[in-house]
Fold this sequence. Notes:
CATH class of the largest domain: Alpha Beta
CATH architecture of the largest domain: 3-Layer(aba) Sandwich
Strand content: 15-25%
CATH topology of the largest domain: D-Maltodextrin-Binding Protein, domain 2
Number of strands: 10
Helix content: 25-40%
Structural class: alpha/beta
Amino acid sequence: MPLLDRRTFLGAATGALLAGPAGAQGTLLDRLQIVVGEPAEALGGNLCRAVANGLSGGSYAKEVRIENRPGAEGRTAVESVKDASGDGSVLLVTPAETLALYPHIYKLNYDPLSDVTPITTACTTDFALAVGPAMPETVKTLATYFTWCKNDPRQANFGSPASGSLPHLVGVLLGKAAGVDLWHAAYPGLDPVLDDLIAGKLPAACGPLGAFLPHALAGKISLLGVSGAARSRFAPGIPTFTESGLKDMVFSEWFGFFAPDDTSPRVALRANEALRAVLARTEVADALAALALEAKTSTPAELTRRLQSDHDRLGAVVRRIGFTART
């Protein structure tokens, strides 16, 4: 379905839903399968468990199963869902980069703007730049970090979970904003990044705030800045990149729920209502907050617009950096 048609269609259906509850009614599903392109212990995997616990045995499905399909940075999960049944029994959980960034980097087997149906955002999080014991104790701010990088360009490198990931691009843009060439070290996931950062084998890293917080609270690493428009409530003592004088350095990651392409507006809105109700529960929001994830929902039309906006912005970022995938 073309993007404009979907936006118009879902927008009209949203209005019908707000006018009365009947539009969201439907038969209780026997089983809901939530597909996520991350391991169970990753942020997306934890999000799925929090939501599944709230949905199981409720008004949407009798049983909820999570299918973790890590591989190809989440692309495999999208491919497995796009042609699935559109009856609401299969939903995809994915971070923004899989749909908004990867089209500008990889040759995909799916069109992120037409092959999946937006349901709702689930949560948002900030990125952070962290330094480890390889960094001198005098480096306590972004300004002193970039001074250190300029004084010793050979050590001006940072790690991220993958080449072509959003943390990779944010790290490169940080260097450009500060007038420093930061060299990127790509890792196969967050865990090895954290291992080398804590062990002093890697001076700095860029990644989701929630991945760094436990280690920062334990005194193993230090946070220098976060990427949000305002300070994160999970790390209120850490300044934003823009507070530190770096222009246009506002980035956030969001996770969203999507359905297969042939999902009708009625089914999409029924799933939207069920998910928003679960994500509004205190125990679910608290479970996400423990990972520095801020529960945040939307209408299908709002998610459609956000995906298009991020798709366009990140395309410009990729062109500015000149990044191309090697595989």
